[in-house]
Amino acid sequence: MKYSSINAQLFIDNRKRLVQELPPNSMAIILANDEMPRSADQAFVFRQNPDLFWLSGIGQEKTILLIYPDCPNPIYREALFLRKTNEVIAVWEGHKYTMEEARASSGIPQIFWEESFEPALKGLMTYCDRVFVNLNENDRNDNAVPYKDIRFTNELKYNYPAHEFKRLGPIMAKLRSVKHPIEVEIIKQACGITRDAFKRVLKFMKPGVMEYEVEAEIIHEFIRQRASGHAYTPIIASGASACVLHYIENNSACKEGDMVLMDFGAEYANYASDLTRTIPANGRFSTRQKEVYNAVLRVMKQAKTMLRPGTILADYNKEVGKIMESELIGLKLLDKDKVQKQDPENPLYKKYFMHGTSHFMGIDVHDIGNRYAPMQVGNVFTCEPGIYIPEEKLGIRIENDILITEDGIIDLMADIPIEVEEIEDLMNN
């Protein structure tokens, strides 16, 4: 790992929170992600199952976490199983966790080698009443691959048909959506790295540079500051491409007169940041560009104030839509009379603002959480309104990451330039 060590108290506290949610005599089993093949003898870069990392801090493949608070054998009430290394693995793949290192990173005293998991499980299943299995239940999930958790769950159900099997996903969504203070500090660090990358781009940007050159400046700053890389595939979209919401080709020139929409964020210590800024390629906003940009910024500033405990995400999006509606009328993109007569189920503003305003963020950039439950203290949301005008080859989105607290919001990206004057000043001085 590139990042500095994380305080193991985070993972100790997270496991305590999970234990409080489990019914008596229940066992939870959380597996590492698959190593996914890329070609005949290559695998994609491994990224840990977010739930396993959240509970243990272990980012290594072939790891298994077992939590069984009422186990009659105390050594298995909280146990971590690791891949056992050897000289061949050390030469070809490098260092793997020792038991001592895993104890220090996770705060779990009982560490075993992976090969002992199956024999242990057979004995433990005799005593437990139910097993909580950990499937990917993110409501954005669209994975057709029978990944490890599915295969393992099917195997368990076949071997132990009399046991009760329960879903761990809803519990993890509830727990992970409320951030621990240590998690907040890690996200702040990811945001800080992202800030520095953006400032680097402001100095680099000029007409004629390629979108991929901008992307290269960003990743340079990320890696220089010990980030693992991009938290998601970055969008560097100039001109008309900014109206394509998930444009990732990043292969065009940033031309004179273009606005360049950049949606990117550093991943640090497995935690995401998520920033969007839209800047003029030549360093100066035109009158129309400034007009549209400031309209988006006003929507964002009002939307941020609505991110508070008790707010329902669906209701919030509707209210933001009304604010956006007013701005679009002011920009002469919508007709006030037609808006008054519109179908409420198909509002006209969606022609120019067709996505939601906020999503949960944490270990995953689109983190798990119940979007139909009231917002809570400790939630981290993005706030990212946008206006997209294909006929003007103009797309503008602005995005910051917001922490909900008892005393109001904390904008985790408040120190990242956002006003027109700030951006122009940094690009020209």
Please supply descriptive tags for the structure shown above.
three-stranded antiparallel β-sheet; 13 helices; 2 domains; Creatine Amidinohydrolase; six-stranded mixed β-sheet; globular; 429 residues; Creatine Amidinohydrolase, Chain A, domain 1; alpha+beta
Protein described:
This protein is of the alpha+beta class and 429 residues long. The protein folds into two domains: 9-176, Creatine Amidinohydrolase, Chain A, domain 1, CATH 3.40.350; 181-428, Creatine Amidinohydrolase (Alpha-Beta Complex). Helices cover 35% and strands 18% of the residues. It has helices spanning 9-21, 50-56, 87-92, 99-106, 117-125, 148-159, 169-176, 181-204, 211-224, 287-305, 313-330, 336-340, 420-428; strands at 26-31, 37-39, 42-43, 64-67, 78-82, 110-113, 130-133, 164-167, 229-230, 235-238, 259-264, 266-268, 271-272, 275-280, 380-383, 386-389, 394-397, 400-405, 408-411. The strands form six sheets. A six-stranded mixed β-sheet has the order 6-5-4-1-7-8, with helices on both faces. The chain has a three-stranded antiparallel β-sheet with strand order 9-12-13. Helix 1 (9-21) packs across helix 2 (50-56) and helix 8 (181-204) packs across helix 9. The relative contact order is 0.11. The model has no long low-confidence stretch (mean pLDDT 96).
Topology record:
Elements: H1 9-21, E1 26-31, E2 37-39, E3 42-43, H2 50-56, E4 64-67, E5 78-82, H3 87-92, H4 99-106, E6 110-113, H5 117-125, E7 130-133, H6 148-159, E8 164-167, H7 169-176, H8 181-204, H9 211-224, E9 229-230, E10 235-238, E11 259-264, E12 266-268, E13 271-272, E14 275-280, H10 287-305, H11 313-330, H12 336-340, E15 380-383, E16 386-389, E17 394-397, E18 400-405, E19 408-411, H13 420-428
Parallel strand pairs: 1-7, 5-6, 7-8
Antiparallel strand pairs: 1-4, 2-3, 4-5, 9-12, 10-11, 11-14, 12-13, 15-18, 16-17, 18-19
Helix pairs in contact: 1-2, 8-9, 8-13, 10-11
